[in-house]
Write a structure and sequence with these properties.
This protein is of the alpha/beta class. Helices cover 44% and strands 15% of the residues. The strands form 5 sheets. It has a 4-stranded parallel sheet, with helices on both faces. The two termini are 42 Å apart. The chain binds one RNA strand through α1, α6, β12, α9 and α11.
RNA sequence: GGCUGGGUGGCAGAGUGGCCAUGCUGCGGAUUGCAAAUCCGUCUACCUCGGUUCGACUCCGGGCCCAGCCUCCA
């Protein structure tokens, strides 16, 4: 039985889909004006694993992850760059897709863009206007009248009267109430704009998600996800918009992942303490980043540090080392035993990937113990290890390639040279010239090559 | 002030009413020409104060501390 922590009810609940065997899921994707940082990577990886796991449970999942390609930040950045905003967003959409591919994040089924959804956005605002939830301020902007939506605050657990308006962001003078938010914003000179019943302008920050999610998934769907920082105001406002339009509960399960922190402080663009995915990829493999993310529960804070990534690196190398030289193709991997049971139990418990990884290590350990004895059992377990790891999107590379490759992969010439030196060392060892053998090993060690002398053979891997 | 999450061994990080997480690192042993890898063993872990209980790190209550949110953020 799958249990999910639902941010809406603040408790773990048994998951029941709206439609038997099917899941409709929406995740807030990127606002594309810069490269993805590790915080974005966390959302991408976490929900990637959630989707993979839901599919494993035989649900037919429709996964929608949007792209917000028009908003204030994009306009500001495009202006700074003296660049058309569309060129800017195209560039970062491409970069995001590259990052996703590197991180082994499977593409969503639908990836709607705000700028392609203008008709839906406008029709939704019209409906809100018709239902009496909006007003046009004297500056021409259309606002959502939060006081009209009785359930406002149900997701974040906030009461309007307890909030300190303008605590961090200045309140717009045109609003009736500080908690109101913009639905349609009038275009200033030289700003990108779309025609609408309220004049040329662009959508406010929250409406695009309400429009795209209902457009792609209907008035009601199962899961809505995103980072913790979106819970308020973004998701609260999405609820206000969608439910004021449809009169129905829009989402059954809200899933929010925790932050990535740097030195115990949230990683964010505004604080400037972020590391982009491509930056980190210069020093670590994508799989190491993925492991690092999945090694803690998705709701916990995750501290970014090179120590933690180094630990991820060692841990993965150990698992690959175990798989090295074991043929797994004879078995399909779908083995039912105490490992698979506990793996599923962990994943069923609100996607406890850290617990699931610990099971992978228990299997690894068992394979190491068996390897000298029962070969076929070791192969069977290795196939299982790979299969279970595939749900987390790790351990899928050829171990040989993985262990000899990496961030600064060697070229063919270098590997030929290594093989030559290893051959020389083997000969030295046969003639008991250990001084020479050690000298050769030292040369390779200095290049970051680690040797392992197996029975009658020597293999190598990168440090 | 209100609202969310959290506080677990050297570090990271799960979990459980009584016994073992797991990973990284350190230490001892086996193995090895020496290593590496692997195996075996090992390091005073559960913020604090009360309560419930035969038994609490785990359940309940009061503190303290950390992070985040209160209309820019994943």
């Amino acid at each position: 039985m799958l249990e999910i922590y639902n941010s809406l009810t603040k408790s773990k609940e048994e998951f029941k889909p709206i439609e038997e065997g099917k899941i409709r899921m929406y995740v807030c994707g990127m606002t594309v004006y810069d490269y993805c940082h590790i915080g974005h990577a966390r959302v991408l990886v976490v929900f990637d694993v959630i989707v993979r796991y839901l599919r494993l449970l035989n649900y037919e999942v429709t996964y929608v992850r949007n792209i917000t390609d028009i908003d204030d930040k994009i306009i500001v950045r495009a202006l700074e760059n003296k660049e058309d905003f569309m060129l800017l967003t195209e560039r970062f959409i491409k970069a995001m897709h590259e990052d996703c591919e590197a991180l082994n994040v499977l593409p969503p089924d639908i990836e709607p863009r705000a700028t392609d959804s203008m008709a839906d956005i406008i029709s939704m605002i019209s409906k809100l206007e018709k239902n009496g939830y909006s007003y046009t301020a004297n500056n021409g902007d259309v606002y959502y009248d939060v006081k009209k939506f009785k359930e406002y605050g149900k997701l974040s657990g906030r009461k309007l009267e307890d909030q300190i308006a303008g605590k961090r962001v200045e309140v717009d003078a045109a609003k009736k109430n500080p908690e109101d938010f913009v639905l349609w914003k009038m275009a200033k000179v030289d700003e990108p704009s779309w025609d609408s019943p309220w004049g040329k302008g662009r959508p406010g920050w929250h409406i695009e998600c309400s429009a795209m999610s209902t457009q792609c998934l209907g008035d009601q769907f199962d899961i809505h996800g995103g980072g913790m920082d979106l819970k308020f105001p973004h998701h609260e406002n999405e609820i206000a918009q969608t439910e004021a339009c449809t009169g129905k509960t829009s989402v059954n399960y809200w899933i929010h992942n925790g932050f990535v922190q740097v030195d115990e402080t949230k990683m964010s663009k505004s604080l400037g303490n972020f590391f982009t995915v491509r930056e980190v990829l210069k020093n670590y493999r994508a799989e190491e980043i993925r492991y690092f993310i999945l090694n803690s529960h998705y709701r916990s804070p995750l501290n970014y540090s090179s120590d933690n990534l180094d630990a991820a690196k060692s841990a993965l190398a150990n698992m690959y080392n175990t798989l090295r030289g074991i043929k797994t193709d004879k078995f399909d991997g779908i083995l039912k035993n105490r490992y698979s049971e506990r793996f599923v139990k962990a994943m069923n418990d609100d996607f406890n990937t850290a617990g699931a990884i610990s099971i992978l290590f228990e299997i690894t350990h068992e394979i190491n113990r068996l390897n000298s004895g029962s070969k076929s059992e070791a192969q069977e377990l290795a196939a299982q290890l790979k299969y279970l790891a595939s749900i987390l999107g790790i351990l899928q590379e050829d171990p040989e390639v993985y262990l000899q490759g990496g961030v600064n992969a060697l070229d063919g010439l270098e590997t030929k040279e290594i093989d030559k030196l290893i051959q020389q060392r083997i000969e030295a060892r046969i003639s008991k010239d250990f001084k020479e053998a050690d000298r050769i090993r030292d040369v390779l060690t200095a290049k970051g090559i680690v040797l392992e002398d197996k029975a009658g053979d020597t293999i190598w891997r990168k440090e």
